[in-house]
Write a structure and sequence with these properties.
The structure holds 2 protein chains of 2 kinds.
Chain A lengths: L8 E5 L2 E4 H21 L11 H20 L8 H16 L13 H30 L9 H36 L4 H39 L1
Antiparallel strand pairs in A: 1-2
Chain B lengths: L2 H41 L4 H31 L2 H9 L4
Helix pairs in contact in B: 1-2, 1-3
The chains are: A mainly alpha, B mainly alpha.
């Protein structure tokens, strides 16, 4: 039994090896890019000739935008590409779990660690963009300089938690289905897979919302510090 | 008992204990959080969107503790480093 899709090697040539995580990540990337390219190729502003695909895509973008705006009202469109991409990538790779033979790339600690690292880079980057380097670094000393190690510790552990939470949830979903297939192969795994779809969407939502909350905290702390 | 048996027994027992004890705390925590959130929504239905979003974030935070325990149990059962070490060191095992 494979815990992570990292262990499934599909192609090997010398040092280079392609495991299932990389391949399925590429599939998700290709799918997202291709679908958005096909839809956004013919965008119209008129209501008569608007295709239903464009309407669907607009609904998704508006939904993400509204959620971001609720968390961080000021300058919310700056964060839309990053947070929206995180949400769409995780959601698509979790939902495609219903396709037979699919190994969700989010069920591998490598993918989730990469996503968490990009959040960990984006949070200070947005903070620095907002207020400059000195203004951002000042918050580490905010109540007192004694707090500095605790700030660093909390930023490290929350990114670690982000990675392990997504990995654990998705990995447990696939693992429970695999165990149930051995015990009760009829109908029971279907229920757990339906639950897994729900959990996958909730985890995608939570990952994006937590990333947004961290960014919003970094940015709004700047504004408090400036005033 | 040779060392392989000892490691197997303790790994399985530790995984079971980790899962059992580690899920009690988050279960109580989530129950409290959901009960409070439902009470708040009943008092202020207008704020339901904000309360449920905060509730989801909080639940994710609480649940990650149980997920840590689950990951450790899974590692102990399916990818036990001590087990792999002792099986590799054993001549013919």
């Amino acid at each position: 039994m494979h815990i992570t899709p990292d262990q499934i090697v599909l192609w090997r040539w010398g040092f280079v090896q392609l495991n299932a995580t990389i391949v399925f990540t590429w599939v998700v990337m290709l799918l997202l890019t291709l679908v958005s390219w096909l839809i956004t190729r013919r965008l119209t502003a008129s209501d008569e000739h608007r295709s239903r695909w464009q309407t669907g895509l607009e609904a998704v973008v508006e939904l993400i935008r509204g959620q971001i705006h609720e968390i961080c009202p000021r300058g919310s469109d700056t964060y839309l590409p990053f947070v929206g991409t995180l949400f769409l990538f995780i959601a698509v790779s979790n939902v495609l779990d219903i396709v037979p033979g699919w190994h969700p790339p989010t069920g591998s600690l490598s993918t989730t660690a990469a996503l968490a690292i990009s959040v960990g880079v984006a949070v200070p980057a947005f903070g620095i963009l907002r207020q400059g380097l000195a203004g951002y670094l000042r918050h580490y000393l905010r109540p007192s300089w004694i707090i500095l190690p605790f700030h660093l510790l909390s930023e490290t552990t929350r990114n670690l938690a982000l990675a392990v939470r997504l990995f654990g949830n998705i990995m447990s979903g696939t693992m429970i289905v695999a165990i149930l297939l051995a015990i009760a192969p009829l109908f029971v795994p279907v229920l757990m897979q339906a639950l897994g779809l729900l959990i996958g969407l909730i985890q995608a939502y939570i990952f994006a919302v937590l990333a947004m909350v961290y960014i919003g905290a970094a940015v709004q702390r700047e504004q408090e510090g400036a005033s | 008992m040779d060392s392989v048996t000892v490691i197997a027994i303790f790994s399985i027992a530790a995984a079971a204990l980790c899962m059992a004890i580690g899920s009690i705390g988050p279960a109580f925590g989530e129950a409290r959080a959901v009960a409070q959130a439902l009470g708040s929504i009943a008092q202020q239905p207008d704020e339901a969107a904000t309360i449920s979003r905060t509730l989801f974030i909080g639940l994710a935070m609480i649940e990650s503790i149980a997920i840590y325990c689950f990951v450790i149990s899974i590692i102990l059962i399916f990818a036990n480093p001590f087990w792999n070490h002792i099986v590799a060191a054993k001549p013919g095992g």
